[in-house]
Amino acid sequence: MRMILCLIAALVHPMIASAWEEQPVLEFILSNNPLLRAHHRVTTQYAPPGDTMSRLREYTSIYGKAGAGGTDFNDEPFVLQAGIQINIPLASTNEKRTHAMKVVEETRTIDEIQAKVLGDIAQLRQHEADLAATDKRLKFYGDKSGWLQKRVKEGYDEDVSKLWDIGQKLNEERAASERLKILIASQRYQVAHYAGERWPILLAYLQGKGSLE
């Protein structure tokens, strides 16, 4: 009965081996995803200049004009005019509209990628939880198998069939454990590659071998 209760407790409260956290992973991806970075660069380029000096540089032009002949007030044969022309609109409706559209596009892309990332993170967590539960069952069945083997050696032949059944369950759980390890490795790569060129850093973090600093 005690061993059965231990198994139930393990199934109800599987322990997660990985120490990584979802929020840092999500923030790291949103900061390094190449598609999001490209969208942000475009949005920044379309942003209206916010300060006076920026708008001054944006709308300032230099002009020059040369002409021949004099005027009633100037008898010089050659006239040269040069200057700076400044035309700063108080607010450009088209400018603001274009920037707003780029912001909407960037926000939509962030939402789409964030949804995909959260889905893949949830899948990774599920695989890790399943593996933790499987490892708990493996330990339980392994302990029970050792106990039954001892009883069979002591002459309790009625436990032979039980030992066989436990052996079958051990084989099933070992196979499930190997399958889950493969799924976890694949899912970690899936999540890590959202971070673009910095995916090795994120992968090491998901594997518990490094930090995101």
Walk me through the structure.
This protein has 213 residues and is mainly α. It has two domains: 2-48 and 92-206, no CATH class; 51-91, no CATH class. Helix content is 67%, strand content 8%. It has helices at residues 2-12, 22-32, 34-45, 52-58, 93-153, 160-192, 199-206, and strands spanning 60-68, 78-86.
Secondary-structure blueprint:
Blueprint: H1 2-12, H2 22-32, H3 34-45, H4 52-58, E1 60-68, E2 78-86, H5 93-153, H6 160-192, H7 199-206
Antiparallel strand pairs: 1-2
In short:
The protein has 213 residues and is mainly alpha-helical.
- What is the helix content? 55-70%
Distance between the termini: 48 Å
Can you write the helix and strand succession as a string?
A: HHHHEEHHH
Low-pLDDT runs = 1-17
Q: How many separate structural domains? A: 2
Question: How are the strands of the largest sheet arranged?
Answer: 1-2
Residues in β-strands, percent? 5-15%
Q: Using DSSP, what is the number of strands?
A: 2
What is the 3D shape?
rod-shaped
- Helix tally equals 7
